[in-house]
């Protein structure tokens, strides 16, 4: 019985085999070097602060344009209120003494013009407020910041809301007080008594009544708009507080 002699490989055989195939540890090290080099070329992953900063930037942009939209809507409504109330006063001045086609006077001895004049003044103030904010919001970026726009928006929103509520209550109180008076009245209360009889109403009473009513409806609508404006101001301070937590307002462009 012949036994095959088992012997370990000689150093020369190891050198030959080593030339044929690289050693496993060397292969792995080279692969690790290539992988590490590839990772060093990749862009760094977003951190949590980067994600929050990007989200705050998006909210600041949305807030910015919503405030501008509110200001433009307020400006448009204020101009319509000025147009309606101013036209009502113009018609009254034209028909106050020019009533030769009517035997009896068109207007009572006492006509209270305070509601119509209050609406004109309100429209002018609201238009100025709206223009101020639009100019501030569209100023160059270097001249404004999120904090400055928050201050301007909050101040103008609360002032506009207070003036709107005051003007509505003031005009409505005077109109209701004189609505049943046969010796005095406002432009709206006196002319709206002819509502439903526009074909026989004298001296463009139908126009005065409809435009006075429309102006009052618009000012009531402005209460809703200004409440929304106040909510936007609060949202602005919330975004500003979150921005400070992430790392200041320098990265927020509005």
Q: How many helical elements?
A: 7
For the sheet with most strands, the description reads:
2 strands, parallel
Element string (H = helix, E = strand): HHHEHHEHH
Unreliable runs: 1-6, 20-34
Helix content bin: over 70%
Distance between the termini: 96 Å
- Give the integer mean of the pLDDT values: 77
Main β-sheet, spatial strand arrangement: 1-2
The coarse silhouette is elongated
Q: What Rg do the Cα atoms give?
A: 39 Å
Question: Which secondary structure elements does this structure contain, and how are they paired or packed?
Answer:
Elements: H1 11-20, H2 24-41, H3 48-95, E1 110-112, H4 114-137, H5 146-177, E2 184-186, H6 187-191, H7 205-246
Parallel strand pairs: 1-2
Helix pairs in contact: 3-4, 3-7, 4-5, 5-7
Q: How does this model look, in words?
A:
The structure is a single chain. The protein contains 7 helices and 2 strands, in the order αααβααβαα. The protein has helices at residues 11-20, 24-41, 48-95, 114-137, 146-177, 187-191, 205-246, and strands at 110-112, 184-186. It has a two-stranded parallel ribbon.
């Amino acid at each position: 019985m012949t036994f095959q002699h088992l012997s370990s490989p000689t150093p020369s055989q190891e050198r030959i085999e080593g030339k044929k195939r690289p050693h496993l540890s060397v292969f792995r090290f080279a692969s690790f070097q290539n992988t590490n080099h590839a990772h060093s070329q990749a862009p760094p992953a977003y951190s949590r602060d980067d994600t929050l900063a990007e989200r705050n930037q998006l909210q600041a942009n949305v807030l910015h344009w919503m405030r501008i939209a509110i200001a433009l809507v307020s400006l448009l409504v204020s101009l319509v209120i000025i147009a309606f109330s101013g036209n009502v006063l113009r018609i009254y001045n034209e028909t106050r003494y020019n009533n030769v086609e009517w035997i009896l006077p068109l207007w009572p001895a006492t006509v209270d013009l305070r509601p119509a004049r209050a609406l004109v003044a309100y429209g002018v103030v609201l238009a100025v407020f709206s223009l101020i904010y639009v100019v501030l919001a569209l100023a160059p970026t270097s001249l404004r910041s999120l904090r400055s726009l928050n201050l301007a928006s909050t101040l103008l929103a609360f002032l506009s809301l207070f003036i709107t509520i005051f003007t509505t209550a003031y005009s409505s109180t005077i109109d209701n007080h004189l609505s049943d008076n046969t010796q005095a009245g406002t432009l709206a209360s006196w002319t709206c008594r002819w509502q439903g009889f526009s074909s026989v109403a004298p001296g463009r009473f139908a126009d005065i009544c409809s435009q006075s009513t429309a102006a009052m409806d618009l000012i009531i609508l402005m209460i809703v708009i200004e409440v929304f404006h106040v909510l936007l101001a609060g949202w602005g301070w919330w975004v500003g507080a979150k921005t400070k937590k992430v790392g200041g307002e320098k990265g927020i462009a509005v």
